[in-house]
């Protein structure tokens, strides 16, 4: 994802070597700092796109296709225009042209704008559309079957690709030589992002210029996307995202709905707000693709993993890929092979979702590893420890691969020594078990990131950067780094973000935000501060290099009494603020994280219900900037992982391919009573600089829970979600022949 | 008017809905006294004038009978703290307190809320001083993107006004009607259980 977002650019500009302040000197960095926008959010004062009202604003609404596979034969929007309050109605499909086909349920067919939401709803209902309904493909099994209709231009199934070598002979020989083999089919479901603020925006024209308030993770990419779709100059499009209600990878551009809002606004001659309905949100704004794997893996008698051979497939919906790489690259299998096919079905296309590909790959691999340990009658933790990548020549593991250290730490915390070997043999229906899994993620940062810092004559400081806060705490980080560099309290600086007219920063995806903005903000702040030092130094009769900014003062490093308050220093600027830019440089951030998670569960073998009692997590993220928001990211990742493990499931009707649960009562998300005790140990690596943390903590939760359920019950569930029905079915199978 | 009993002759689901629905509406529009003894008076489908008492202030507005409390408050009165997320009473982002009880405002008709005391997240702070629950949410970081936060804060206030020292289980149960996608639950629970959250307002 990082690579899609940030293709390699020119080498970064050279400049003075940059560093973070020494740990002992840090006033804010690495400390638990409360989110600066907490008060606005907790009072309902934070204005999200969904909350913004513009003068004369109309409400937009889509007519979404009720059919997953169809041809639009005719559209008549004129009845919509007769509904009182309706100001615009446009057809979005051309029955005579190439856009007549509908590929998935929820695809946009027409749109209206009206003075009230109710009138817009009535207008959508009034539009007359004739569809020719075609037989839809609802499941990968249907699409792959020999007598299926071919619904997609390049066929229902992509060509097989060999994603991991070596050649066939090696894998089969290694499997043959293995002491134990595990063979099975594993799968994970389609998960939807379910952002609480649905996708959408408000578009307002001023002549040929467009202002768009958009719920997005990428103000710059949204500006660029709108200018492309509307064939406008980029400079004529202005995108604003002050607050946004969750995206998780699904909000990295304007998508169809904001482009449609712009068209409606032009047609109606008034600003238009178009926010998707909850149903549309589930149907058309992306999802985590499903994953299926037929695996054969081996281990030798000493517990050395020998070979991993996988045939994999999955669906990302209509025409989209469903790639994931197994074995998940934590353990060193001797030889590997993966052959993968993408399968297309008539359902909404996938989008990047929090650690794309990783939770699926981690689940499959970690379950296989546990099964191999069972074959060996070895502690699965011991098998993992024996198969970690070898340490370097100095006997040290890479800073990005610290599992050898983290596994025992987490095992100790969860009480792994009390873990029983296979099934819980205690009496009663409630069985207890433990499981574990590891994760890794790249993160990194974009070398194209820029920021602009102003120091004002009255002492005010503004840091402008075109990033956005998607709930991760980015606004707070920008303020913290600026304040730390200026030696000021957090409240003395303003973090100006969420605007495409601020300097370029990447979309918030791939856990690259912190790695992109932290160095850039630091450098812009240092440049501005140093310009202030140059202004102040003569009046103190010292060299600028002798000055430091600390505790709200500008003072001589070796003689703190010699100096002045920050405000006095800024007064020397007269009427001319300092304006300084910052460009990303290498060395202040890095990439690569590692972590482990352990789960302790209770399973009721009469009902099949799993309760996660405790999750223990050890995770690094380079230099911790804000301990509070960093921990919150980990809590959030684990909780989303619990949803993936136990509840979340996009269910399509197998006959019609219509989604059965496009809502929030049957698309199940974890609630307060589903949350276990969560024990987080964040490992600080101050020497590495910050590394993104949004994605890694959600990767291994489901795998750890699956392994814990098997440990509790003695029955192995090889597919997600781990529903009561799936657990009961596995228990039944175990009693009548075995699942292991 | 006396509600018709279910075993009366000629009862059907349709007449039941008409009687109860329209009766409720009439009572709401005219006030209980005026409605007394009058024949059923259907209102709508056009806009009708209503009054809503929100955070101690009476608002007069015209809404169609089908308009929900949430949409009336957000779209007609521009009080936007509470959110619409699931739009069918499953997620709690629209939580308001009506006569001391939490309601899903997305699934409550505005016209039926006349004469009741409606409280939203906007009514909690006193000037610039946060309500202790809001303060606790900030201190414990019981918020990330913040979209569910007004609903969670409001539900927590309603809980603590009834039970100032909830157990962990009681707090969990009281907040089980709210959904957060960022995964703030652990810290929302900490905030709800913080003794300061149910304490007197500071400042």
Q: What would your notes on this structure say?
A:
The complex is a heterodimer of chains A (740) and B (203). With 740 residues, chain A is an alpha+beta fold. Chain A folds into three domains: 2-30 and 445-583, Aldehyde oxidase/xanthine dehydrogenase, molybdopterin binding domain (Aldehyde Oxidoreductase, domain 4, 2-Layer Sandwich); 49-64 and 70-134 and 194-284, Aldehyde Oxidoreductase, domain 4; 287-444 and 590-735, 2-Layer Sandwich (Aldehyde Oxidoreductase, domain 4), CATH 3.30.365. Chain A is 27% helix and 25% strand. A seven-stranded mixed beta sheet of chain A has the order 3-5-1-13-10-11-12, with helices on both faces. In chain A, strands 7-17-16-15-8 form a five-stranded mixed beta sheet, sandwiched between helices. Chain A is globular and about 85 Å long. In chain A, 58% of the residues are buried. The model of chain A is unreliable at 1-12 (pLDDT under 50). Chain B is elongated, with a radius of gyration of 19 Å. The N and C termini of chain B lie far apart (50 Å). The longest helix of chain B has 23 residues, at 13-35. Chain B has helices at residues 13-35, 69-76, 132-140, 149-162, 168-174, 185-193, and strands at residues 48-54, 57-63, 95-98, 101-104, 117-119. Chain B folds into two domains: 47-122, Ubiquitin-like (UB roll), CATH 3.10.20; 132-198, DNA polymerase, domain 1 (Orthogonal Bundle). Chain B has a five-stranded mixed beta sheet, with helices on both faces. With 203 residues, chain B is an alpha+beta fold. Residues 1-35 of chain B have low confidence and may be disordered. At the A-B interface, helix 2 and helix 16 of A face helix 2, helix 3, helix 4, helix 5 and helix 6 of B.
């Amino acid at each position: 994802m990082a690579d899609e977002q940030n293709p390699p650019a020119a080498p970064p500009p050279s400049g003075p070597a940059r560093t973070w302040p020494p740990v002992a000197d840090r006033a804010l960095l690495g400390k638990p700092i409360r989110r600066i926008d907490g008060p606005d959010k907790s009072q309902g004062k934070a204005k999200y796109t969904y909350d913004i009202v513009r003068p004369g604003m109309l409400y937009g609404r889509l007519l979404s296709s009720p059919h997953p596979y169809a041809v639009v034969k005719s559209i008549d929007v004129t009845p919509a225009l007769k509904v009182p309050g309706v100001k615009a109605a446009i057809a979005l499909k051309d029955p005579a042209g190439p856009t007549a086909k509908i590929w998935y349920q929820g695809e946009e067919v027409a749109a209206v704008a009206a003075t009230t939401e109710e009138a817009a709803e009535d207008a959508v209902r009034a539009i007359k559309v004739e569809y020719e309904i075609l037989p839809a493909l609802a499941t990968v099994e249907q699409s792959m079957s020999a007598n299926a209709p071919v619904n997609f231009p390049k066929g229902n199934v992509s060509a097989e690709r060999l994603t991991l070598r070596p050649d066939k002979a090696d894998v089969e020989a290694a499997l043959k030589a293995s002491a134990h083999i595990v063979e099975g089919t594993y799968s994970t479901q389609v998960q939807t992002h379910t952002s609480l603020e649905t996708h959408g925006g408000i578009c307002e024209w001023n002549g040929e210029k467009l202002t768009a308030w958009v719920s997005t993770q990428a103000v710059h990419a949204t500006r660029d996307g709108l200018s492309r779709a509307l064939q406008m100059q980029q400079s004529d499009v202005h995108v604003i995202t002050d607050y946004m209600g969750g995206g998780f990878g699904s909000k990295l551009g304007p998508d169809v709905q904001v482009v449609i809002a712009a068209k409606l606004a032009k047609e109606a001659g008034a600003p238009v707000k178009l926010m998707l309905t909850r149903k549309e949100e589930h149907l058309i704004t992306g999802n985590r693709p499903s994953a299926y794997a037929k695996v054969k893996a081996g281990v030798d008698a000493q517990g050395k993993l020998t070979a991993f051979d996988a045939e994999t497939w999955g669906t990302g919906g209509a025409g989209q890929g469903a790639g994931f790489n197994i074995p998940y690259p934590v353990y060193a299998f001797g030889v590997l092979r993966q052959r993968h096919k993408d399968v297309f079905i008539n359902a909404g296309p996938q989008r990047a979702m929090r650690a794309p590909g990783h939770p699926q790959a981690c689940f499959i691999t970690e379950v296989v590893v546990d099964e191999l340990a069972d074959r060996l009658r070895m502690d699965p933790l011991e098998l993992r420890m024996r198969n970690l990548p070898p340490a370097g020549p100095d006997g040290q593991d890479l800073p990005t691969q610290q599992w050898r250290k983290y596994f025992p730490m987490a095992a100790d915390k969860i009480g792994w020594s009390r873990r029983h070997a296979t099934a819980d043999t205690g009496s009663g229906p409630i069985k207890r078990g433990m499981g574990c899994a590891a994760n890794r993620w790249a993160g990194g940062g974009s070398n194209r990131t820029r920021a602009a810092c102003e120091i004002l004559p009255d002492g005010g400081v503004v840091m402008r950067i075109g990033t956005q806060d998607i709930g991760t705490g980015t606004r707070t980080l920008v303020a913290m780094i600026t304040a730390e560099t200026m030696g000021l309290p957090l409240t003395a600086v303003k973090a100006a973000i969420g605007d495409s007219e601020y300097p370029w920063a990447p979309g918030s995806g791939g856990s690259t935000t912190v790695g992109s903005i932290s160095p850039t903000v630091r450098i812009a702040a240092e440049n501005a501060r140093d310009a202030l030092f140059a202004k102040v130094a003569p009046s103190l009769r010292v060299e600028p290099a002798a000055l430091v900014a600390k505790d709200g003062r500008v003072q001589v490093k070796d003689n703190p009494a010699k100096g002045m308050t920050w405000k006095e220093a800024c007064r020397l600027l007269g009427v001319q603020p300092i304006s300084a830019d910052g460009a990303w440089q290498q060395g202040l951030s890095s990439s690569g994280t590692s972590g482990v998670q352990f789960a302790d569960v209770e399973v009721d073998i009469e009902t099949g219900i799993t309760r996660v009692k405790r999750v223990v997590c050890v995770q690094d993220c380079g230099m911790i900037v804000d301990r509070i928001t960093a921990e919150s990211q980990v809590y959030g990742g684990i909780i989303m992982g619990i949803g993936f493990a136990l509840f979340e499931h996009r269910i399509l009707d197998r006959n019609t391919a219509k989604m059965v649960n496009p809502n929030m009562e049957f698309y199940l998300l974890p609630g307060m009573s589903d949350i276990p005790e969560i024990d987080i140990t964040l490992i600080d690596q101050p020497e590495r600089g910050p590394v993104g943390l949004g994605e890694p903590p959600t990767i291994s939760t489901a795998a750890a829970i699956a392994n814990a359920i098997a440990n509790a019950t003695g029955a192995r569930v090889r597919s997600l979600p781990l529903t009561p029905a799936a657990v009961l079915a596995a228990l039944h199978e175990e009693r009548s022949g075995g699942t292991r | 008017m006396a509600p018709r009993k279910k075993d009366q002759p000629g009862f059907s689901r349709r007449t039941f809905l008409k009687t109860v629905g329209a009766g409720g509406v009439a009572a709401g529009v005219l006030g209980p006294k005026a409605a007394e003894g009058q024949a059923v008076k259907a209102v709508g489908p056009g806009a009708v004038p209503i009054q809503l008492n929100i955070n101690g202030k009476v608002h007069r507005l015209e809404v169609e009978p089908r308009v929900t409390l949430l949409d009336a408050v957000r779209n007609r009165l521009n009080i936007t703290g509470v959110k619409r997320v699931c739009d069918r009473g499953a997620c709690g982002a629209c939580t308001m307190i009506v006569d001391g009880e939490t309601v899903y405002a997305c699934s409550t008709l505005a016209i039926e809320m006349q004469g009741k005391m409606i409280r939203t997240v906007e009514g909690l702070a006193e000037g610039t001083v946060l309500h202790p629950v809001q303060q606790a949410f900030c201190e414990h970081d019981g918020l990330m993107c913040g979209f569910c936060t007004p609903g969670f804060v409001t539900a927590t206030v309603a809980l603590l006004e009834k039970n100032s020292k909830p157990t962990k289980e009681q707090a969990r149960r009281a907040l089980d009607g709210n959904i957060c996608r960022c995964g703030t639950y652990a810290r929302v629970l900490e905030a709800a259980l913080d003794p300061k959250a149910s304490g007197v307002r500071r400042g």
